[in-house]
Amino acid sequence: MDDQGGITVQRALELPVLRSGLPEVVAGGDRLRRTVRWVHAGEVPNIASLLKGGELLLTTGLGLGTRPGEQRAFVRQLAERGIAALVVELGPRFDRLPDALVETARASGLPLVQLHREVPFVSVTEEIHTEIVNHHYALLRQAEEVHRRCTAALLGGGGVPQVLRVLSDFTANPVFLETPDGQLLYAAEGGRSPADPLQVWEGLRGGRQQDTPRNAVVVDVPGGGGGTAAVRARLVLLAVSAPLSPVHRMAAERAAGSLAVVLMQARQEEELAARGRGDFLTDLAEGRIAPESAPAQARVLGFRQGDGPLLPVVMRLAPELTGNGGWAVLVRAVSEELAALGVPVLLGVRPVEGRVPLLVGLRAESERAAVADRVAAALRTGVERAGLERAGAPPAVVVVAAAGGWAAAGAGLRHAAETAVAAQGLGDLPWYDARRLDIELLLWRLREHPDLAAFVERAVGPLLAHDAVSRPLLLPTLETYLAHAGRKAETARELHLNRQTLYNRLARIGELLGTDLDDPEAVLSLGLALRARRHTP
Fold this sequence. Notes:
Layout: E1 7-8, H1 9-14, H2 16-19, E2 23-27, E3 35-36, E4 38-41, E5 55-59, H3 68-81, E6 85-89, H4 99-108, E7 112-115, H5 121-155, H6 160-171, E8 175-178, E9 184-188, H7 197-205, E10 216-222, E11 231-238, H8 246-262, H9 269-285, H10 294-300, E12 310-316, H11 327-338, E13 345-347, E14 355-361, H12 368-386, E15 397-400, H13 406-423, E16 432-433, H14 438-445, H15 450-469, H16 475-483, H17 488-495, H18 499-513, H19 520-533
Helix pairs in contact: 3-4, 5-6, 5-8, 6-8, 8-9, 9-11, 9-13, 11-12, 13-14, 15-19, 16-17
């Protein structure tokens, strides 16, 4: 099965813009069910090196070469790269495809298509990419519908068997839940699957505990811990009665998150409930729950909103603390602390990500800051009681987004969650306002872009090189100077330096960096570079 999805070469040739070019398949006619994941147009001889596989390559033949050897090499390289098909437009370069080209395509099993009429390649690209996107969207819609049914089963009091039955109905095949070492936990067959799941399991695993058939989809169910505890179980979909497709993997991946919560029920019901609320808040943040249906689902989870706005809050723990357990204790402690607030609170946990999302019902926008103070204090109390802190580890970060209605709540939770990651290491404020950290969030999103690292190196590289081998260190002086917006008297007081010593250090910094620290543009650039340095390797 194709895990990435796409459309077939046959479907691409049936689209209006390619059909108008009068396509003729001259080789690889039995391979037209290959998946097209992308379209590329090019005329260079070494174009194979630019491709990743699965592309429909459009060309007028200018890069094919003039000699048979060049043409054979061109086709062989494309076939080895694994492209979906080669489409050549006849015209000024070729009025018919060379025999060497056609013969090599046939020998390589590469679909080769010639167009007898000119077509705009940009229109071909646009139409096929639109078809691919629509195909992906249709798959996502199907997978989300299965996820909705699984969630409804869990909210209705169901458990693992109900979720597996939903998946079995959807795939028309038996579905299994196994331990990480391959022992059967549950087996299910839906009404559409005629196979006996236990018999299938026996044939699947009998004497071959470590082998997984090629016609199976296997998805890890997270365990919330580190190391061997990272995987609590595995969900296995097996093609017995019907083939499996990409949408079945998507549905299984979504169901795995729900199963992870259910499997905790035998140990900690309180944590299970909080995980369920965390799933709801995460689904809301990621747009999987429509704002109009969110209030009813929140009421099922015990959230009784008043008439005021909703305040999204997210706490994030350091990654090294997320596998320590203690989440039930945290939930209990935070709930006790927030009970005195007198406002509705929907508190969830996402242990795998080390995230605690909340929605708080305010009476009025004006109480946002006061409520944020109380919520942040309650969250930190919960972290302390649960033992989710460690000497030397970064402190928990609490981020508060803008208040608003249900239509804004999901975006607020998503904004707060991303900002909480970007804010780690900034300091230890009780809470951060997400609206004031947009620059930090932007730099964090660009953290892997090479231009950001290059910018940091250009701006402060010489200073970092100096501090690596010389004393006194000058970077703290620059950081303090910028933190005080260039006010030298305040900088000198915080660093416990006399003014002349500070002036000498600033002059040395300016000399090393080749810049004027009294220039506002230079100060802005240096400030951004120091912020960006937190997010670059």
